[in-house]
Amino acid sequence: KAKNPHEPEFIQAVDEVARDILPFEEENPAYKGEKFFTRMIEPERVFIFRVPWTDDKGNFHINRGFRVQMNSAIGPYKGGLRFHPSVNLSILKFLAFEQVFKNSLTTLPLGGGKGGADFDPKGKSDNEVMRFCQSFMTELAKYIGSNADVPAGDIGVGSREIGYLFGQYKRIKGEYTGVLTGKGLSYGGSLIRSEATGYGNVYFSLNMLERNKIEVEGKVCTVSGSGNVAQYTAQKLIELGAKVVTLSDSGGTIYDKDGIDEEKLAYVMEVKNERRGRIKEYIDKYPSAEFRAGARPWEVACDLAYPSATQNELDGKDAAVLVKNGCKGVFEGANMPCTPEAIDIFRDNKLLYAPGKASNAGGVATSGLEMSQNSLRMSWTREEVDDRLKVIMGNIHEQCVIYGKDGNDGYIDYLKGANIAGFVKVADAMMAQGLV
Ligand code: NDP
Q1: Choices 3.30.1490.190, 1.10.8.100, 3.40.50.10860, 3.20.20.70: CATH for 42-183
Q2: Which residues are catalytic, by number?
Q3: DSSP labels for 299-357?
């Protein structure tokens, strides 16, 4: 805390992991002696750079670009790029730190990193976004590579941005490699990558529900966000017969008591992906639904909740409302959407709670599968990738169960399980590689 006084999100993420790892290190002195946790909270390196670009009217703009290379003990750095006005070093260090544990849990050889810029793609023309991406990559290209550091998308970085970034990297380096994931299918992308985070979170929740003999069919589900993760979470839940009643964005929440079906979701995808519109446009087409300006979905009574927008979007008050309304499980699609107070309430009330570093790892896992396909110069079928994704989510679940046993009542603390399982693999690799 003394070293990073202006990094609240990073401190929050480290605190959350420390509470499980420090007691574990006490019980396992081999880990404690080599100060793995202390080493793991210091990034291997951080790049901060200027990103100059011009808008369509010829005005000059300067943004700040970042890449945090957190840990490469088990593989090349891997983690998304976020373009959002709120981006700063604290947020990217928190995301990179979480990514180390998440990537370790996937069972794939992936280190952890994260990057981005305080650039807001909202309201920008395609040409402006392209010029920004080209300028950003002109600097970033110096630090990444298919065997060194492989970025992907995150908030504000979707297939359009990945395309522009990839084109510029290729132009600078003169080589065609799998340096980015989340690419389009025509130039090295993987089937199921777009769906992977949302689908993966639902697969993870199915493992948890099955263990507790709860059926997903017919359950009322609240989903927050309406971007990549939210859309495919909703899609898989609908396919499985659940009733999804909310989606949201930073403007507010739509509540459709009749349930969002496939047709309604297709409309949301058109509004958000093709027109880059706002979620409130939903009620223009489906007036029986309700738009709650500025509200989050958590006051809507539900059986299962899937926070899939952004960090700290579900606080202690929201958690208390969820518990009061009889919610049975909360499954994080976003990174750190639940505050520490909310997590305490879930733990105290023995709610099923899936931490993002485990439950949203399907995205990066499928990115790992995209890297494998690029190296093989092959493409796997949709079924092949989806099957591998299901197996990986099952393995992550298994690791959480092994390390997350809490007390004698069979309750699994998935957060503790994910933290310890993720930590052990990275610490073992660091131990083997000496003091680096
Ligand atoms: P998108 O940019 O596609 O969508 C983000 C969604 O969250 C939008 O609906 C956005 O609304 C909303 N949102 C963003 N910031 C805020 C905010 N401050 N308050 C309220 N709503 C907000 O991003 P993704 O779907 O890719 O990412 C969502 C979350 O999932 C993030 O936490 C990301 O780190 C995490 N994640 C994503 C992975 C992926 O594969 N894409 C992998 C693992 C985790 P608006 O349009 O109004 O900004």
Answers
A1: 3.40.50.10860
A2: 114
A3: GS--SEEE--S-TT-B-HHHHHHHHHTT--EEE--SSS-B-HHHHHHHHHTT-EEE-HH
Residue 5 scores a pLDDT above 90: no
Residue 339 clears pLDDT 80, i.e. is over it: yes
CB 82 within 8 A of CB 48: no
What is the end-to-end Cα distance of the chain in Å, rounded?
Answer: 23
- Exposure letters 110-135 (e unless 16+ CB within 10 A, then b): bbbbbbbbbbebeebeeebbbbbbbb
Q: Dig out the tokens for 68 from the structure.
A: 């945090």
**C-alpha of residue 253 to centroid of ligand 1, in Å:** 14
Amino acid at 209: L
Question: Do 42-183 and 194-358 have matching folds?
Answer: yes
Residues 66-114 pLDDT 10s: 999 999 999 999 999 999 999 999 999 999 999 999 999 999 999 999 9
- Is 360 labelled a binding residue? no
